[in-house]
Backbone:
């Protein structure tokens, strides 16, 4: 092994990558901009949607002459304007009213209509149901007073629900659910063009033959290429993770119901970030080496894209599965590539990293990375692969 040759090949490949606009876009621009743009769009459009829904939740469809007088104060307190229609359900379905109210002839059944896909309709229905609940409590209290009974008989005890999870754990849970999916997906997509350019790209440009004709050993050449591909893949992970933490730390996300991701609840301490990056490193080596090995099989840039695109699509499923609620890291899952890293990232961000499972996960990924590294090196030494036409 000649360190000087490996370093020379590595520098040459990195220089070629940094000259390629497609690689710059997928490896640097997209990872850096994806989270700031995502949070900016979410903050703007979701905030506007909430305000719009509040202003549109103003009308209530009622049947003509079918609402008893005692329900009129309920409608008034809800802030909704009643509109008499022939069919309440149809009026709500066709967006002629935000919500609807129907009272049976004996006033024993009250139906509230809402269109579940419209936020304004859900808000209007919630307002009406809140006031109907107060009317029920008022009636029950009056009946108990008439019967000279204590109103407390209906509520012999109070049930309270308290979330014992810390704010750090809740914030890490929400953040970890999307971090593993997005970062791992961008790692593969960011390293894909680098792998294609170093393998199929060189074949297409007819420069691979000149490189192989040099006095350098094949092992040194492939090590330089693999290290460059891994660098591109891991750089994508670093930039994506840094962009995410920076966006959250600067309070870029300010959405109702997601405050746990903002400010001091964001786990951005050095230990957490170090564990995240350490978890992603063997995944980057595995991804870079595997994509380079596959790209070597192709004869052209376009053919390599057709080989690697399905691989990137296959990564989506385990990465997305790892962020689903109820999915937990177990010894078995620790052996499943991609899924194990996604699960471990979520635990790290929650501040609960089981040492045994973390070591098992990283050990498994190191083994997978070594296998992919060996496959890439063997492919580069196979004349049938290199000169495939």
Residues:
């Amino acid at each position: 092994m000649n360190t000087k040759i490996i370093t020379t090949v590595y520098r040459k490949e990195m220089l070629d990558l940094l000259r390629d606009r497609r690689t710059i876009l997928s490896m640097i621009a997209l990872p850096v901009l994806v989270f700031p743009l995502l949070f900016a769009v979410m903050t703007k459009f979701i905030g506007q949607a909430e305000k719009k829904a509040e202003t549109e939740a103003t009308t209530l469809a009622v049947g003509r002459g079918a609402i008893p007088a005692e329900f009129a104060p309920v409608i008034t307190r809800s802030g909704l304007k009643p509109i008499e229609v022939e069919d309440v359900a149809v009026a709500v379905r066709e967006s002629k009213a935000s919500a609807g109210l129907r009272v049976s002839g004996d006033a024993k059944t009250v139906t509230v209509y809402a269109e579940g896909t419209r936020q304004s309709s859900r808000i209007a229905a919630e307002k009406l149901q809140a006031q109907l609940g107060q009317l029920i409590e008022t009636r029950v209290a009056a009946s108990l007073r008439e019967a000279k009974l204590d109103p407390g008989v209906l509520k012999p005890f109070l049930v309270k629900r308290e979330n014992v999870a810390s704010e750090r754990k809740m914030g890490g849970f929400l953040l970890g659910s999307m971090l593993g999916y997005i970062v791992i997906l961008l790692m593969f997509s960011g390293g894909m063009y680098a792998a294609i350019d170093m393998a199929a790209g060189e074949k297409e440009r007819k420069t691979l033959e000149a490189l192989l004709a040099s006095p350098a050993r094949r092992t040194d050449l492939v090590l330089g290429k693999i290290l460059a591909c891994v660098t591109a893949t891991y750089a994508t992970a670093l930039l994506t993770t840094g962009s995410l933490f920076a966006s959250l730390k600067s309070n870029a996300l300010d959405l109702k119901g997601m405050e746990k991701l903002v400010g001091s609840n964001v786990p951005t301490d050095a230990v957490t970030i170090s564990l995240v990056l350490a978890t992603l490193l063997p995944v980057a080596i595995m991804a870079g080496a595997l994509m380079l090995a596959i790209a070597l099989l192709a004869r052209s840039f376009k053919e390599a894209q057709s080989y690697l695109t399905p691989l990137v699509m296959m990564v989506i499923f385990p990465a997305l599965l790892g962020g689903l609620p109820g999915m937990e890291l177990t010894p078995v899952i620790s052996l499943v590539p991609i899924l194990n890293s996604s699960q471990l990232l979520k635990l790290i961000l929650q501040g609960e990293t089981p040492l045994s499972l973390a070591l098992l996960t990283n050990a498994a990924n190191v083994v997978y990375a070594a296998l992919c590294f060996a496959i890439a090196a063997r492919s580069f030494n196979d004349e049938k692969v290199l000169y495939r036409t």
DSSP finds 14 helices and four strands in the chain. Strands lie at 59-63, 81-85, 99-103, 110-114. The chain has a mean pLDDT of 81. The chain has two domains: 3-47+166-386, 57-154.
